[in-house]
Write a structure and sequence with these properties.
Layout: H1 3-25, H2 41-48, E1 52-58, H3 62-80, E2 83-89, H4 92-104, E3 115-118, H5 121-128, H6 151-154, E4 155-156, E5 159-160, E6 165-172, E7 174-178, H7 191-200, H8 213-226, H9 239-245, H10 247-256, H11 271-279, E8 285-288, H12 295-299, E9 307-310, E10 316-324, H13 332-341, H14 345-352, H15 371-382, H16 391-396, E11 398-399, H17 404-419
Parallel strand pairs: 1-2, 1-3, 10-11
Antiparallel strand pairs: 3-10, 4-5, 6-10, 7-8, 7-9
Helix pairs in contact: 1-4, 2-13, 14-15
Length: 420
């Protein structure tokens, strides 16, 4: 195991230890002394004016960063007197660690993190540590646009959201190929077909090393297919079942490895690196998570204009991503205002539109908006073009996320069985 692998495992071990200490020492930090009632919205707005909002978010996409800075930032400043301070992190776990270390040190108010773009195991970690502000997300005004009964919204990697985070958007894993190199009839449409394709085309495929998010998704989808589908893994983590069935995944990935780019001697560390290899013609596939397609990446020169998305017949994982407020946030009012703002149907439509640089999926339900907003959003969906897949196709192959413990176990065991 190389030094980077040891670091990743050590970081998760340290994080788990910190969670246990924080949970033991701070059994009531879900309020953190920051009593803010979203039902008194005028008071929230009044309290937020003049605040600087420290938003910690993954900073790996310049297009997403630009959207946040040029769309959300000016609206917050002009309408609410809030200064948006976007703080990029390479991995959301860095923001999680910051919150946990502050609370462990007794800083239960005035924390450095006001709002985090989050989901999955990072949400679970902060919930287990009782380190998030609760009972707010379903009570902000624009929560009325959210279908809280939909499992893809109400459950974050199987864990009930329960008022601790508010949806920002949605995503679904897709593969990307270059139509100038080969046609759709040549594409593998399952992990079984991918193995045969890679053996026929050695060196032309790779995937990011977990814990990269896209790498995790690629590995987890293989886990689903090789173990009979995600239904087996719904609910709480099945220790015995995982131990019994996961060896099939490691055998598959080990068989795949000699035929990968650089014979699997190294793996890309991020989706940005994977995109560069693809754009340079070194590999034939990359990935995207954007339901509205890859137009933004093509327009930015990240991907060739002949790139096209596709999905496996065996399904791809889709889920929501959220905004959460740490229990010790210095500016919970400003955080609530931003979480409410991003749910405005007009801004959801803007975020969905690839020409604005993002192409993120919706966090709101079309059945809950008025006719004018519904027409605005439907117009964006109708105009996605060849660089996006039909929403109906994505929905037909959509697979659920499962408990965050599976992600943690797959990350850990990939290091042991594949990277070695």
């Amino acid at each position: 195991m190389n030094q980077a692998s040891v670091f990743r495992l050590t970081r998760w071990g340290a994080l788990i230890g910190a969670v246990m200490l924080v949970a033991a020492a701070c059994s009531s930090t879900s309020t953190g002394g920051n009593a803010v009632d979203p039902a008194e919205w005028d008071g929230v707005l009044s309290g937020s004016r003049g605040q600087q909002l420290n938003l910690f978010m993954w900073g790996g996409s310049s297009e997403i960063n630009r959207f946040v800075d040029t769309v959300y930032g000016p609206r917050l400043e002009a309408e609410f007197g809030i200064e948006l301070n976007r703080i990029p992190v390479a991995d959301t776990v860095d923001a999680v660690n910051k919150v946990l270390s502050e609370i462990q040190a007794g800083r239960d108010q005035g924390g450095a993190v006001d709002l985090i773009w989050i989901n999955g195991e990072n949400f679970q970690t902060l919930r287990q540590a009782d380190a998030l502000l609760g009972d707010w997300s379903t009570r902000i005004p624009n929560a009325r646009f959210v279908d809280w009964d939909a499992p893809e919204v109400s459950l974050d990697f199987g864990l009930p959201v329960a008022g601790f985070e508010s949806p920002l958007g949605s995503a679904q894993f897709q593969f990307v190929y270059d139509s100038a190199r080969f046609g759709p009839d040549d594409l593998p449409l399952s992990y079984a077909e991918l193995l045969e394709w890679v053996k026929t085309n050695p060196g032309r495929f790779t995937y990011p090393a977990p814990p990269d998010f896209h790498g995790n998704r690629f590995v987890k989808q293989a886990f689903y297919e090789l173990t009979g589908g995600p239904e087996r893994w719904l609910g709480e983590f099945d220790t015995a079942g995982y131990a019994k069935f996961s060896p099939a995944l490691w055998s598959y990935l080990q068989e795949l490895e000699p035929y990968l780019w650089r014979q699997g001697a190294s793996y890309p560390s991020s989706i940005a690196e994977l995109n560069r290899l693809f754009a340079n013609g070194e590999i034939d596939f990359t990935f995207t998570q954007l339901p509205a397609g890859i137009e933004a990446d093509v327009a930015a020169g990240v991907l060739p204009s002949t790139s096209r998305p596709f999905v496996f017949d065996t399904g791809t994982i889709g889920d929501s991503h959220y905004l959460a407020i740490p229990a010790n946030a210095a500016h919970p009012e400003a955080a609530m205002v931003m979480a409410n703002l991003v749910l405005e149907p007009e801004l959801q439509a803007a975020k969905l539109a690839p020409e604005n640089g993002w192409g993120d999926g919706l966090a709101i339900s079309l059945s809950r908006v008025d006719s004018a907003d519904r027409r605005r959003i439907e117009a964006v969906l109708d105009d996605l073009g060849a660089l996006a897949l039909e929403p109906g196709l994505l929905e037909s192959v959509r697979l659920p996320e499962v408990a965050a413990e599976y992600t943690i176990a797959l990350e850990r065991d990939w290091q042991q069985h594949v990277r070695r």
